Amino acid sequence: MRIAHLSDLHLTRGPLAAQPAAALVARFGDTAYLGNGVSPSYAVEYPQATLVLANSWVQGSPAGCLGPAQLAWIVSQAAAVRAF
C-alpha cells in the first residue's frame, strides 16, 4: 500500500555534512528544493502528507541537535496540520 507519492525533490542535510546549512541556502534558497524559502528548516504540504525538515547541524560536532526553538517550531507545524 502506498501512503503518498511525492514527485518533487526536497533537500535536507544530515548532521555529518561538511558544510553548514548556509551553503545549502545560498545555492537552493527560494527554490522548490527548499520549500520556496530561505531556511534549511521548512515544511511542505501535500494532500497525502506534510514534510517537516529541521536543521540539526552543530558546528564542530558529529552529532546533530534540535534545540527548544526548533522543537517548538516542529510542534507548531504538527499542530497546524492537525488543525487543518
Draw up the topology in text.
Layout: H1 21-28, E1 42-45, E2 50-53, H2 68-83
Antiparallel strand pairs: 1-2
What does this structure look like?
This protein has 84 residues and is of the alpha+beta class. Helices cover 29% and strands 10% of the residues. Strands 1-2 form a two-stranded antiparallel ribbon.
Brief summary of the model shown:
Helix content is 29%, strand content 10%. It is of the alpha+beta class.
**Element pattern in H and E:** HEEH
Q: How would the global form be characterised? A: flat
Structural class: alpha+beta
Q: For the largest beta sheet, what order do the strands appear in spatially?
A: 1-2
Number of strands: 2
- Please work out how many helical segments DSSP would assign: 2
Strand proportion, as a percent range, falls in 5-15%
Query: How large is the radius of gyration?
Result: 14 Å
Provide mean pLDDT, rounded: 75
The proportion of residues forming helix, as a percent range, comes to 25-40%
List keywords for this structure.
single chain, 84 residues, alpha+beta, two-stranded antiparallel ribbon, 2 helices, 29% helix, 10% strand, disordered N terminus
